């Protein structure tokens, strides 16, 4: 290892020496590099001086590698290849929609929206190596802030400094209850005050949908039941269908969760209708912010084309 204050070989010196090592002829090596023979000879001499080692045996008729030159040629080839790989990798990374992209998604969105998004990503951005991480809001927000995720799909606003938020769609909450519940006898929109007299079952701590439902209940003076919680939306639907209470169900989940022959009925609310906004968020400091803005536009198009029961933002 060279001391810190010692000069080190330059790439130009290594490139000149390797050309001579390949051709064993100064003139041919100079032609291959499109440089003058004196400049080539000077670069090789400078490398020998830097390494304090003779690399070439020069005669009037030919050039030979010394034993040290043989070993240096191997290392020089490895170094130049590594630098070439580095330059190529950086060049590829500058291309839009190329390389890895780590997406975080909350559990109350992933099963209902990803089937519309993943085929679109594969079709429109084939060079983008997308990975998906499903976790609760707090977890994916921490991971996008720390750089472990590139962008996150979740409920907005996040109220997190340093993030750009791209609204994708708005959706209503529907009241879900057992199919034999007295509310099943009607079909018109309900006033939110109806929640005051109902046992409301929620997701457990950490789900933003839980906090949104609690906010709706708080606005009308209703309380959620403390006895029963669910860890996922499918489980929550099963608890409601089993008669343990009612819940607020995002409309995007309805086609999936009510298509399993569950004994569930749904009613809409009168205006102002409770709901949520779902969007993409990513670091404002990211070098790929222009790409992510275009991805948000593509996501809106995919959701619109899939005709999910939501209102896509413009």
UniProtKB/TrEMBL annotation:
* A Pfam short name: LysR_substrate
Asked if the keyword Cell division belongs to this entry, the reply reads no
Which residues fall in a coiled-coil region?
none
Q: Which residues form the HTH lysR-type domain?
A: 9-66
Q: Which GO terms describe its molecular function?
A: DNA binding; DNA-binding transcription factor activity
- What InterPro entries does the entry give? LysR_HTH_N, LysR_subst-bd, WH-like_DNA-bd_sf, WH_DNA-bd_sf
Q: Which domain of life is it from?
A: Bacteria
**Alphabetic keyword roster:** Activator, DNA-binding, Transcription, Transcription regulation
Q: Which GO terms describe its cellular component?
A: protein-DNA complex
State the family named in the UniProt similarity comment for this chain: Belongs to the LysR transcriptional regulatory family.
Write down what this protein is called: Probable hydrogen peroxide-inducible genes activator
